[in-house]
Design brief:
The complex is a heterodimer of chains A (123) and B (285).
Chain A: E1 2-7, E2 25-30, E3 36-40, H1 50-60, E4 65-68, H2 73-79, E5 85-88, H3 94-102
Parallel strand pairs in A: 1-4, 4-5
Antiparallel strand pairs in A: 1-2, 2-3
Helix pairs in contact in A: 1-2
Chain B: E1 2-6, H1 14-24, E2 28-32, H2 40-44, E3 47-61, H3 71-75, E4 81-84, E5 87-90, H4 100-104, E6 110-125, E7 128-135, H5 143-153, E8 159-163, H6 170-176, E9 181-186, H7 190-205, E10 210-217, H8 223-231, E11 235-240, H9 243-250, H10 255-258, H11 260-283
Parallel strand pairs in B: 1-8, 1-9, 2-7, 2-8, 9-10, 10-11
Antiparallel strand pairs in B: 3-6, 4-5, 6-7
Helix pairs in contact in B: 1-11, 5-6
The chains are: A alpha/beta (123), B alpha/beta (285).
Chain lengths: 123, 285
């Protein structure tokens, strides 16, 4: 199964990013082959709509699940029709997060926040 | 004569100043450009209101023509479009109505639909023409409404006060770009200096003549006054931190129309402002 997660560095030793839309990188992780692919998040510096663009990246990598501490409304509107399940992370490190997912300890995100929309530019 | 009233943060006294200066003039126009939360009308209680709907164009996709090339998605700086499951998704609230996606679509699969983003209301309160812009909740940008508001500012010859949105973002730039003069309202505190700097930098960038009104002044040290002296900024006047004024404000009363003291204060302030603007138009026409 292909997982996507927002991460702070391009290393399996790194930590999960506390934001989704403006994370620096995504890790695309295959639970079967245990293969890791790190992707730059081109949405990180968007003037607006970062969640939408970030979600587009996750959709385009054909991830089946997103593991993230939080997720905004607009991102969810892209992820859901893409049939991507959104799980809430509870650990800081990538390794612990994957282990928790494999053990079935992560639950689906129930609360989708309406977005912080502080952006980088005008509001 | 068009005068914008601005400040680096909300709650500094933009509405107090612009409402009372407009009310102190014999005939004037008051335009509320703070379209996310207009409040000047609460004081003026204008009557004979006529409202006009403000529409913008947003894209719609013809799914039979869209081939998923994503030219539109790559073009949109606000990320208002996404492509999921072989379908184009458009986020109306994120769209800034630039029309670029429609222009660049190689398949001509995008076309325009109109959407109402807010309204402009015209009314009168004694000798003041009150024009209020209102942006619908959740909309991305108040610019289309401000453009419409200022279209009216450019029509008449009456002295016009533009109550700007707080801060120094693009809605403020839109509000001040055609004015003759900017009044910067600031609190006298150190915190006030920080907020004043934001709008001071903006008016300098726009090459607008400007002056400062210090609001909520008490008999203590005034870092904002010191800042103005150091930068050689004209202080047009001071408004005291006064219980009576606070009471009038919280009861939505116009100080000029309620209190003799404030009628004198704002009439004199208005005179100073008019002289400054006239001076500026002679020195820097």
């Amino acid at each position: 199964m292909k997982l996507a997660m927002p991460v702070n560095d391009k290393s399996i030793e790194a930590s999960i990013s506390d934001t989704f839309g403006r994370t620096s990188y995504f890790l695309i992780y295959d639970t079967e082959t245990q293969e890791s692919v790190f992707v730059d998040n081109s949405a990180a510096n968007s003037q607006g709509g970062a969640g939408i663009k970030a979600a587009q990246i996750v959709v385009d990598y054909e991830a089946e699940a997103l593991l993230t501490p939080q997720c905004g409304e607009n991102a969810a509107k892209v992820l859901r029709p893409g049939n991507i399940k959104i799980y809430k992370t509870k650990c800081i490190s990538i390794k612990d997060t994957i282990a928790a997912f494999n053990k079935g300890e992560l639950s689906l995100i129930e609360q989708i926040h309406s977005g912080f929309h502080t952006g980088n530019g005008e509001k | 004569m068009k005068i914008a009233v601005l400040s680096g943060k909300g709650g500094t006294g933009k509405t107090l100043v612009s409402v009372n200066l407009a009310a102190a003039a014999s005939e004037s126009v008051y335009i509320d450009c703070d379209v996310e939360e207009p409040n000047g009308h609460l004081f003026f209680k204008p009557n004979k209101i006529i409202s006009e709907r403000i529409m913008v164009h947003i894209p719609v996709v013809d799914e039979n023509k869209c081939n998923g090339c994503r030219v539109c998605i790559d073009f949109c700086k606000f990320n208002a479009l996404a492509y999921i499951n072989n379908k184009l998704a458009i986020f109306d609230e994120i769209c800034h109505s630039c029309g670029g996606c429609i222009l660049f679509c190689p398949e001509r699969a995008l076309f325009e639909k109109t959407k109402m983003v807010g309204q402009v209301e015209y009314g009168t309160s004694k000798a003041v023409t009150v024009i209020t812009g209102r942006l619908n909740i959740g909309e991305a940008s108040g610019i289309p409404i401000i453009k419409k508001l200022l279209h009216h500012a450019n029509k008449g010859n009456k002295i016009t006060f533009i109550d700007s949105p707080p801060g120094s973002a693009c809605t403020v730039m839109e509000s001040i770009k055609d004015v003759d003069y900017c009044i910067l309202v600031a609190e006298p505190t150190l915190f006030g200096v920080h907020n004043l700097t934001m709008v001071y930098d903006l008016v300098k960038l726009f090459h607008k003549p400007y002056g400062v009104i210090l609001n909520k002044c008490v008999d203590e040290e005034k870092p904002a006054e010191k800042f103005c002296r150091e930068k050689n900024i004209k202080i047009l006047g001071e408004i005291p931190f006064d219980h009576e004024l606070g009471m009038m404000n919280s009861n939505a009363l116009i100080a000029v129309r309620t209190s003799e003291t404030y009628k004198r204060l704002f009439t004199s302030l208005l005179q100073t402002v008019i002289e400054e603007v006239q001076h500026e138009t002679i020195v820097n026409p």
